[in-house]
Write a structure and sequence with these properties.
2 domains, binds iron/sulfur cluster, 468 residues, Glutamine Phosphoribosylpyrophosphate, subunit 1, domain 1, alpha+beta, globular, 17 helices
Length: 468
């Protein structure tokens, strides 16, 4: 689980949204971005096409901080894209906020990206040597320069760029009269298509963004697919052969909202199944099962149902932490986790507790949570983790520390258990996780990326990140 002040966790990079042919495009994009807020809280932006002109508004912070009613009123138009950002490549500054808008011989384009390009540095060096001048240090701008240097029409230019880039990407692009979306050839990041009525089309990182605007889910995008949406509707083309899918496992375990469906699987139900599998693999003698909010809750319900133990609300999360929250001083930092999580003492006191969390990264946060439970009088604490041990850094857009900081890369499960002061600790197995999520995919590992668990990266990594 991630905490904004101790950076001990995994963080998603971004969420993207797009809408074609709706009179309230800006407003619906705002609502869609709000539903995707969990994917990025550092900046938010929107671009609307109005009578042949692309207008962009971007700001730092949450969607509600970056954009307001007055801003939306300045954005008439029927087609729009939106973006919420968490930084993994490039600094957290307004110039890196998306959508990025540019103009070249092929016309005006705005682009928003979720993921990470593993060969961005190499491509950027090549482009700079050929005369490109970059405005930002985000890897997304590489795509715009590749398109501009091709000099081709937008669709052909994008195809040329997509063939050159490597890594994880779910892209949405807007031109004055088209919405274009593309997903990388392995489909690391989720991206889906929806519909409102007959003629309005929407795309989003997760289907939870459709619920809020009454859009019907149509389908997930295929890996290596480019979808061009214009007045005639969506047209699907391929820019790369369809490789076996490697969807990020952490989308199910932690990132995606429980009310989203990914690859035909409900995220909430997948988490419950992960909990049931954890019980099968690692039962514990205990009195109650609790989860670390939020992603641990569905998993804890699954563990409780499978074990017959009562599920309890043992911890409450304070949700009201935004960009304007006063940063904690050194003393409060030491208090750490208490500012975000509070224990329900009467539930915990004198109990043997099964504590469910989604992952252990550096180990600091779960150590603090165990301490909180002990202070509240827990008799025993049996920690169960719904991801396998993270032993490698992610190069596909999830913010993970280097291997030297990953506790599971440096220590055995027994050593970690001792370090965090748990009475027992167990992680789900890779196979158990895959079976529990239950995706129907004929690809190896049922179409999951497992690189941060076993170091088997589906693409070349170009030395991106410190992998040793
Ligand atoms: S390496 Fe891990 S976090 Fe990164 S995409 Fe693969 S499964 Fe997700």
């Amino acid at each position: 689980m991630s905490f904004w002040f101790d950076e001990d966790g995994l963080n998603e990079e971004c969420g993207v949204f797009g809408i074609f042919n709706h009179p309230d495009a800006a407003e619906l994009t705002y609502y869609g971005m709000h539903a995707l807020q969990h994917r990025g809280q550092e900046s938010a932006g929107i671009c609307v096409s109005d009578e042949g002109v692309l207008n962009v508004r971007r700001g730092m912070g949450l969607v509600t901080e970056a954009l307001n009613k007055q801003t939306l009123e300045t954005l008439p138009g029927c087609h729009a894209i939106g973006h919420v950002r968490y930084t993994t490549a490039g600094a957290s500054i307004i110039t890196n906020a998306q959508p990025l808008r540019f103009r070249y011989t092929g016309g005006q384009v705005a682009i928003a990206h979720n993921g990470n390009l593993v060969n961005a540095q190499k491509l950027r060096g090549d482009l700079e040597r050929r005369g490109s001048i970059f405005q930002t240090d985000s890897d997304t701008e590489v795509i715009s320069h590749l398109m501009a240097q091709s000099g081709l029409s937008v669709e052909k230019a994008l195809q040329t760029a997509l063939v050159a880039i490597e890594g994880a990407y779910a892209l949405v692009l807007l031109t004055p009269d088209k919405l274009i979306v593309a997903q990388d050839p392995r489909g690391f990041r989720p991206l889906c298509l929806g519909q409102i009525g007959q003629n309005c089309w929407v795309v989003a990182s997760e289907s939870c963004a459709f619920n809020v605007i009454d859009a019907e889910f149509v389908r997930d995008l295929h890996q290596g697919e480019m979808l061009v949406i214009d007045e005639q509707g969506p047209h699907s083309t391929r820019f790369a052969p369809e490789l076996p899918r490697t969807l990020c496992s952490f989308e199910y375990i932690y990132f995606a909202r429980p009310d989203s469906d990914l690859g035909g699987v409900s995220v909430h139900l997948a988490r419950k199944q992960l909990g049931a599998k954890l019980f099968q693999e690692s039962p514990a003698e205990a009195d109650i099962v609790i989860g670390v909010p939020d992603s641990g809750l569905s998993t804890a319900i699954g563990y409780a149902e499978a074990s017959g133990l009562p599920y309890e609300v043992g911890m409450i999360k304070n949700r009201y932490v935004g960009r304007t929250f006063i940063q904690p001083n050194q003393m409060m930092r030491r208090q750490g986790v208490k500012m975000k999580l509070s224990v329900v003492r009467q539930v915990i006191k004198g109990k043997r507790v099964v504590l469910i969390d989604d992952s252990i990264v550096r180990g600091n946060t779960c150590g603090r949570i165990v301490r909180l439970l002990r202070e509240a009088g827990a008799k025993e604490i049996h920690m169960r983790i719904s991801a396998p041990p993270i032993r490698h850094s992610c190069v596909y857009g999830i913010d993970t520390p280097t291997r030297s900081e990953l506790i599971a890369a440096q220590h055995s499960v027994e050593e970690i258990s001792k370090e965090i002061d748990a009475d027992s600790l167990a992680f789900i197995s890779e196979q158990g996780m895959i079976e529990a999520i239950g995706r129907e995919d004929s690809a190896p590992n049922r179409g999951h990326c497992l690189a941060c668990f076993n170091g088997s990266y589906p693409t070349p990594t170009y030395g991106f990140g410190e992998l040793q």
